[in-house]
Amino acid sequence: MWRASTRASIIREMEFRANFIAGLTRQLLWLLVFIFMVDVIFGTTEQLAGWHQSEVLVLIGISRIVEGLMGVLFVQNIMELPNLVRDGKFDFHLLKPVPAQLYTAFRRTNIDNFGNVIAGVLLTGYALIAGTITPGLPAILLALLVIAAGITIYYSLLIITATLVFYIDRLEFLWGFNILLSEPLTVPFDIFPRLPRVTLTYLIPIAFVVFVPAQALTGRLVWWHTPLALGLAALFLLIANAVWRTGIRKYSSASS
Amino acid sequence: MTLLVRQISRLCALEWSRILQYRADAILWLTAESTIPLISLAIWHTVSAASPTGPAARDVLTYFVVIIIIGLTTESWNGAFMARDILNGDIVKDLMKPFPVFWRYLADNLSEKAMKLLFAVPVTLIVLTTLADRFTPAIYEPIRLVYFLASLALAAVISFLTDHLIGTLAFWLEDVFQIRRYKVILEQVGTGVLIPFAFMPPLAVMLLGFLPFRFIISAPAEILLNQPVQTTVPQLFIFQSAWIAVLLVMEFGLWRRGLKRYVVPGQ
């Protein structure tokens, strides 16, 4: 089903090519903004909380890849849940022969976000070469493993919050919640004071989405953060599923 | 005039009652809207603490605390609603009402802002008064506060007009939302939220400093802190007023031309 949905998405995007290209250009512009910002920062100082310019660029590169991937796979779909529930269209999701949560989150592949992934890969490659950072194969594999765990945590946090729509009739804040979660991904968490840093690492563990993988690539990874990432990903996924199932029981159709 | 005031106050009352119903949503948005300035604060505070030159850490802290309030006061999102109403034809309902279409968007904007500021302003005032020694002393001078409030009012008008100018383009363009997304990028850089103008290289200040975005967020903060970047306080006021004049002419010119060619779809 996912393959068929991806194929349909590609066909749809290619029907509106100008829009697709405008989206890619926009993502490239965002990348240029980040590079400009890093340039200004390192025009003033040599280090940002112990991170050098090329290391910060690696982090930004990973953030583009991960945010792009999440955008392609599920973010946009989950954001549409409040509207689906309000319009009564969520009923059709419940009738599909696949788990409703999976269908809701992955029903459409938003390939217009793929520009971020490409830009991120190019930037990460450039930063690694320019900064003569040479992560070995184990470091790359560890980074990929933590990214997978981080994406699972992010997905779970979105699902947990989106489930609120089964209890309250308006949840426009879901977009705001996504901003709240995604904005800190582009900076080294070392710049934050202790309380927010600890909160974003252990309580709402979005540190594992970009920051910890960047630590893995730049040789800063604390070894026990890898099993912790996997454990937290499993825990949050379980919680998200439990919360979703409870929420579904509260759902009452808005359709006539 | 009395009629206009009565109309707008009645619309505000209606919108206020709607916002009250969804007050939790509005307050949660407030948290999300403060995220970018708070992250920028963390970045630039670290930079200023590590750098012997450039703005002091205290000024950076003051700047970002102030721009959270400026951002909440000047933000405008209703241009997107207007674009949607133009595209799907819903705007005809408002065109038939006995007051200008803009009043409804203005009332929605003012009411939601009031709800957010009701929570944000007391918290900021408590922080600014209890921790006064951590902030730039200039912000406690009464005359600066007067200048700041005047500049803030002008900034809110610029923001509203810029936002609606792009919304008006929906008379000609189907995908006006793509333009809005580009505007967000320019806004993030041009307002001084991502990078304060005080840190930017002179060439960037010159290029970005004349766009309207600086006069929506950075200018009121520069005036309150008495730290205008490559300009003076009177010049900032002159630029704000000039932008309002330009945007008013463009907005009403486009609106009139747009209405003349408007064909309502599906009605």
Automatic annotation (TrEMBL), chain B:
The keyword Transmembrane applies. The chain crosses the membrane at residues 26-44, 56-74, 114-132, 144-173, 193-217, 237-255. InterPro entries: ABC-2_transporter-like. Keywords: Membrane, Transmembrane, Transmembrane helix. Pfam families: ABC2_membrane_6. It comes from the Bacteria. This is ABC transporter permease. It comes from Candidatus Andersenbacteria bacterium CG10_big_fil_rev_8_21_14_0_10_54_11.
